[in-house]
Amino acid sequence: MSVTYNFSNKVVLITGGTGALGRTLVKKFIDSGAITISSFLNEKEAEKLKTANPKVEMIELDIGKEEQILKMIPILVERFSTINILVNVVGGYLGGKNITELSGTDWDTMMNLNLKSAFLISKHVIPIMKSGNGGNVVHISSRTGLKSEGYDSAYAASKAALIRFVESAAQEFKEHNININCILPTTIDTDANRKAMPKADFTKWLLTEDLANVVLFLCSPSSGVINGSAIPTYGLS
């Protein structure tokens, strides 16, 4: 039985809401009554999301670029008064190379996409939560952040660092009623992953629906005692 949450009058910012997990989160938050904002980079994907969820508010934003965040956050605050919830779905994967084959660009790409972006959006959204009544932040890390199987060192290092970042940030702002956590999924069942790994056993992969349910719980009052945690969401893999 699925749990129903009430996020009425809550303002939710989902970064990367046009991806598979992001789309599921957008729908669930809207269905729960939240004012839901999604960032995007690809206009076609943004149009698809808006068509499927007319109530979603779309903003073009690259959270890896601080100057864009600095311009956008005041606009959001002026329009919606606050940001109560931040779900950062932005991230990426690079694997298949050992460390001697990795380029400096490969390394920087993983650190920027999976770690620096999380730092930048947190840095500029958390002050908005501090000036209000607190809030909830959820980042998407990975089980690989706990244990790597090899050939993904840049990805693994960025996701491991994200876990430590979440732990530190949670301690720094817990007195302001801000809960900051991350989840640790394995492979998510998406069209892109099926195309990339056509011989894999899809039945062992995580459904976006199940993963989104964990995120919504972490953003709800029911999760108030959970802070600075890396939540395992391993599925069967």
Care to describe what's here?
The protein has 237 residues and is of the alpha/beta class. It has a single domain (11-233), classed as Rossmann fold (3-Layer(aba) Sandwich). Helix content is 43%, strand content 16%. The protein contains seven helices and seven strands; from the N terminus they run βαβαβαβαβαβααβ. The protein has helices spanning 20-31, 43-52, 66-80, 104-131, 153-173, 191-196, 208-218, and strands at 11-15, 35-40, 57-60, 85-88, 135-140, 178-185, 230-233. Strands 3-2-1-4-5-6-7 form a seven-stranded parallel β-sheet, sandwiched between helices. Helix 2 (43-52) links the parallel strand 2 and strand 3 (57-60). Helix 3 (66-80) packs parallel to helix 4 (104-131). The protein is globular and about 50 Å long. The two termini are 23 Å apart. The model has no long low-confidence stretch (mean pLDDT 95).
Strands ordered across the widest β-sheet: 3-2-1-4-5-6-7
What portion of residues is helical? 40-55%
From N to C, what is the helix and strand string?
EHEHEHEHEHEHHE
Helix/strand structural class: alpha/beta
CATH class equals Alpha Beta
Which whole number gives the mean pLDDT? Answer: 95
Please give the alpha-carbon distance between the first and last residues: 23 Å
Question: Unreliable stretches, pLDDT < 50, 5 or more residues?
Answer: none
CA radius of gyration = 17 Å
